[in-house]
Amino acid sequence: MAGIEKSMAQYLREHPKMKFVFFGGKGGVGKTVMAGVTAVWFAQQGRRTILASTNPVHSLSGLLAQNVFGQPTVVNGVPNLWAYEIDTKDTIERSKQDIKQKIQWFLKFAEISTQADAFVESATMNPAFEESAMFENMVELMFKDEYDVYVFDTAPTANARRLLGMSKVYSLWVNKMLKSREEARSLRELLSFTKKKEADPLMDYLVSFRDRMGRAQKLLTDNQLTAFFFVTLPEALPIAVIKRFINWFHDFGIPVGGVVVNMVIQKNQVHADSPEFVRNRVAMQDAYMTQIWNDFDGNVRAILPLLDNEIRGTQALKDFVKHAFA
Ligand SMILES: Nc1ncnc2c1ncn2[C@@H]1O[C@H](COP(=O)(O)OP(=O)(O)O)[C@@H](O)[C@H]1O
Ligand SMILES: [Mg+2]
Fold first, then answer.
1. How far apart are CA 5 and CA 171, in angstroms?
2. Which residue in 11, 27, 85, 122 has its CB near the most CB atoms, within 10 A?
3. 134-157: pLDDT as tens digits
4. Of the options 3.40.50.1000, 3.20.20.80, 3.40.50.300, 3.40.50.740, the CATH number for the domain spanning 8-88+134-161+223-324
């Protein structure tokens, strides 16, 4: 009979420098709850911990039953814990203005008499732009380095992978941009009568951007500092989602911490005379548990009971720590 080889707590104790923790999985499986519980556990270990969300649709205020929007906020009743829903709309607006300025500068530099607005619109209407803003927010918080541990309530899975994959793409793209900018600049210097070097804010921006992305990638691919955990239910779809996800992450060299199985009906609550509906569901879960042991052998970190109520508020999170970090 398969069992948990290494629990959540064991894994994290074996990685004492762990600093950036993420939860992925299908919608509704308990990612936000797991992020909350894990953040509470880290705080209880005496580490300055921040539970942060970059999603445009936040759920941390709901989870904690406390408003944590817009700034890192002390979580009531949990020493060492802060929570922070980052205002993505605001970042997007600021990035738009920023990009507009740079494009305007570039058009002037290249002596192109076109309005910047059309370029700005096409650059910022892209859905990747919002993801990029979310990624920048996350990276900014990581670089400030004001906490010991960062637990992120990630965006839905497909986005998270794209976000991280993007750092590689950015780097390639920016290097190429830099090269052609450098060529354009030397040509311009060659042709100009005044030999003085011109300031190039666009180039400076690209260099700093590439460096930031490189730094982020370094942190996010370090298995001593970073771990992505995947949450599933004992059901077909959520299992398929995290399988795909784990493969993607391996490809990107992003450390996978393991798998958490949530909402498992407790056998000791079910008897021969329990309703057929409940007995059928238990049988279904049993079958999928077999699949989970097969597919994720050695990487299952916790099996968590389905409670008779939602998990909301810090007391509920503290109570759930006993299950998740048994
Ligand atoms: N083990 C559990 N038992 C009972 N309710 C749970 C359990 N885990 C999560 N929930 C509830 O399920 C809902 C979805 O959880 P959530 O963490 O918001 O999922 P996600 O972030 O993956 O969309 C929430 O109402 C949460 O309180
Ligand atoms: Mg969530």
1. 38
2. 85
3. 888 888 999 999 999 999 997 555
4. 3.40.50.300
